[in-house]
UniProtKB/TrEMBL annotation:
Keywords: Acyltransferase, Transferase. The keyword Transferase applies. Pfam families: Acetyltransf_1. It comes from the Bacteria. PANTHER family: AMINOALKYLPHOSPHONATE N-ACETYLTRANSFERASE-RELATED (PTHR43877:SF2), AMINOALKYLPHOSPHONATE N-ACETYLTRANSFERASE-RELATED-RELATED (PTHR43877). Residues 20-166 form the N-acetyltransferase domain. This is GNAT family N-acetyltransferase. It comes from Streptomyces lannensis.
C-alpha cells in the first residue's frame, strides 16, 4: 500500500462528509447494541431521531473541533473534541469506516484530536464508551488512556477513560 495517505482536517459537523460519517457511525454502534441486546437492527425512525438529537453543535469553535479523516481523498473517519471546562476536553465520535480499518487511521485521528484539545487549552482528555466496543477500548489503552471512575452519567456509557496531555 505504498503511497496511500491519510489527511485529517477540521470540518463543520453539518458538512456533507461529516454528516455522512456521523450517520455511518451512529448506525454501526446502534445496530451493534440492538443486535447484541435485542436481536434486531435499529429502527429507522429511531435512528433519525437520535441523529437529529445530536447535531454535533458542541464540536465547533471556539470550544470544540470535529476532524474528518480522508484516505486517498475519500471520507473515512471522524473524531471530535469539546472542552468540558478550561483544562479538560472530551473525545467524541471516534470512527473509521469498516473498510478502512487496519490502515492506521484511528491512531492518527485520536492524535489529531488530542492536538486539537491542546490547542483549545486542555491539559487532560476524557471519553466514555461501552463494554461491547472492545476494539475501541483496546485502541484507547494502546494510546495511553487509563480507565477511570465515571465522569458522566450518559445512557450507554459503561467505561470511562482519561489521558494527560503534555
Amino acid at each position: 500500500m505504498a503511497g496511500m495517505t491519510w489527511t485529517i482536517t477540521p470540518e463543520r459537523p453539518d458538512s456533507p462528509a461529516a454528516a455522512a460519517l456521523w450517520r455511518a457511525y451512529y448506525t454501526e454502534v446502534s445496530d451493534r447494541w440492538y443486535q447484541l441486546y435485542e436481536g434486531r437492527s435499529t429502527d429507522p425512525d429511531e435512528l433519525e431521531r437520535e441523529i437529529a438529537a445530536d447535531s454535533g453543535g458542541d464540536l465547533v469553535p471556539p470550544s470544540g473541533r470535529l476532524l474528518v479523516a480522508r484516505y486517498e481523498g475519500e471520507p473515512a473517519g471522524t473524531a471530535g473534541v469539546r472542552l468540558m471546562d478550561g483544562a479538560t476536553a472530551e473525545l467524541k465520535r471516534v470512527f473509521v469506516h469498516r473498510g478502512m480499518r487496519g490502515r492506521g487511521g484511528a491512531p492518527l485521528l485520536v492524535a489529531a484530536a488530542e492536538e486539537a484539545a491542546r490547542t483549545l487549552g486542555a491539559r487532560r482528555i476524557v471519553l466514555d464508551t461501552r463494554h461491547d466496543l472492545v476494539e475501541a477500548r483496546a485502541l484507547y489503552a494502546r494510546l495511553g488512556y487509563l480507565e477511570t471512575p465515571p465522569h458522566n452519567d450518559r445512557a450507554y456509557a459503561e467505561r470511562w477513560f482519561a489521558k494527560q496531555l503534555s
